[in-house]
Hints:
There is one protein chain. Helix 3 (71-79) crosses helix 4 (83-94). The chain has helices at residues 6-12, 15-21, 71-79, 83-94, 103-116; strands spanning 3-4, 28-29, 34-36, 51-54, 59-62, 67-69, 100-101. The chain has five helices and seven strands, in the order E-H-H-E-E-E-E-E-H-H-E-H. The longest helix has 14 residues, at 103-116. The chain is elongated, with a radius of gyration of 16 Å. A hairpin with a 4-residue loop joins strand 2 and strand 3. It is of the alpha+beta class. The chain has one domain: DNA Primase, Chain A (Alpha-Beta Complex). Helices cover 42% and strands 17% of the residues. The mean pLDDT is 91. The site of zinc ion (ZN) has 6 residues, from loops.
Amino acid sequence: xxxxxxxxxxxxxxxxxxxxxxGWRPNQDDGYEWRGYCPKHALPNDHSKSxxxxxxxxxxxxxxxxxxxSVIDLYMMVHGFTVREAAIELCARAGxxxxxxxxxxxxxxxxxxxxxx
Length: 117
Ligand SMILES: [Zn+2]
């Protein structure tokens, strides 16, 4: 099974795009940070602002779920996906080809990480 280039997925599918696919809209937008209902635990007509997101930084956090992270972490939380499933679903919903790492490159990356340890 080829390895997915997760950092490429995060670059290709921006957080605002992923939230748009989920039908999420902020209840509050100061141009830097968006706040609104959590796509996991709340309903779209909920006026809560427990879900915080900084779209330019690609970062989000839910103060109720106590979870946050990248666009991939968002799809893992909302859909209960594994990291691999979340990346594949994000690319599919955004109409993009999943960016895979060539097997030789993946092996080299693993070897380099092992050498760093
Ligand atoms: Zn939540």
